[in-house]
Amino acid sequence: MRKNAPDIPGLVEVARLYYESGLTQEKIARALTLSRPGVQRMIQAARDLGIVTINITDPLAMTEETGRRLQEAFGLDRVIVVPNVRGDAEATKARVGEAGARYLDEILEDALTLGVAWGTTVRAVARAILPRRTKRLRVVQMLGELGLATEASETFRAIADRLDGQAIAFPAPAMEKNSAIRRSILHSAHIQEVFRILREVNIALTGVGPISSEATIVKQGHVTEDVMRRIARQGAAGEINTKFFDTRGRPLAAINSQIIGMELEDIRRIPNVITVVSDGPRKDVAVLGALRGKYINVLVIDELLANQVLARNAAV
Fold it and tell me: Which end of the chain has fewer CB atoms < 10 Å from its terminal CB, N or C?
């Protein structure tokens, strides 16, 4: 062996002790009866010779790539992918809400009409919105009431309050099976006025609900598990604004006719639909259906769910 040939086994041993076992240079020197400067030189030599390589993984770069793939696959205006908080779904949802609130703050202008749907992630956006002054901003509820003092009404009013906007409620029940009563509600002057304002919505803030017993609409008691199973049998993949669609994004007219609120076809015509979603049972199926239906312009989504949507789209 030449005099200056590197001691590869020795370099590997020192590198393992330092990088894998986490020993300090001083402890390695004592254990191997070497000088501390000698250990330092061996660690540097291990890097110079490629025995040790250091890779830095930037999670933000990874989420940007995932967002780019979603944007290209579905022709979206913008996708914001948020890293998950490992093992904490609520913290992840809060992150998605914060990202949605920041984006809304970026694009919000005076004299706009903002439509607000409902859902727990939309509520997370409401909580994250920083108060600001606006002029002639209208904030309108996109769906009738699901009950007294519901999350939906509280959420849209909170957003209106934080943005200094005019809150316009939807004074009707969200669901009405009786066709005669439903027609009477839809033809009332108040509801006709709300629908007129909804046709002027510039920006909509929505979530996407899955067809699952774990869906918020079931857990909060607005729809029973039996009803949800019946909706699933009719081919539903998900819902936006409690308006249901199938895996191709096609509206389910028979179900939706009982829901009093903005129709999916009208949501599709809104210039900027910001949809905020975080992971949950069957959420990938629901989000994919919404994307295929072209109901979303801007998607704010957690990384895990984003990758699930891409995988499901590739598999079908």
Answer: N
Instruction: Kindly report the pTM of this predicted structure.
Output: 0.79
pLDDT at residue 2 tops 90: no
Shared domain check, 178 and 44: no
Task: Note the pLDDT tens digit of each residue in 84-117.
Answer: 988 899 999 999 999 999 999 999 999 999 999 9
CATH number for the domain harbouring residue 244: 3.40.50.1360
**Structural domain contains residue 120:** yes
Other C-beta atoms lying within 10 Å of the C-beta of residue 108: 17
Grouping H, G, I as helix, E, B as strand and the rest as coil, residue 168 is strand
Contacts 24+ apart (CB under 8 A), 245-253: 245/289, 245/290, 245/293, 245/295, 246/289, 247/285, 247/288, 247/289, 247/292, 247/316, 248/289, 248/292, 248/293, 249/289, 249/290, 249/291, 249/292, 249/293, 249/294, 249/295, 250/293, 251/293
Question: Do 248 and 283 sit in the same domain of this protein?
Answer: yes
Written as six digits, the tokens of 260 are 């009093």
Alpha-carbon distance 129 to 97, whole Å? 9
**What domain count does the chain have?**
2
Helix (H, G, I), strand (E, B) or coil at 200: coil
| Pair 20, 87 in one domain | no
Flag whether pLDDT at 67 surpasses 90. yes
Query: What domain range includes position 28?
Result: 8-49
Instruction: Looking at the structure, tell me whether residues 92 and 25 fall in a common domain.
Output: no
Residue 152 lies in a domain: yes
Using pLDDT thresholds of 50, 70 and 90, give the confidence band for residue 148. Answer: very low
Q: Are the C-beta atoms of 93 and 124 separated by less than 8 Å?
A: yes
Alpha helices in 138-224 (DSSP H): 151-162, 179-186, 189-198, 216-219
Evaluate if residue 150 carries a pLDDT over 70: no
Check: CB of residue 67 under 8 Å from CB of residue 80. Answer: yes
User: At residue 59, what is the residue type?
Assistant: P
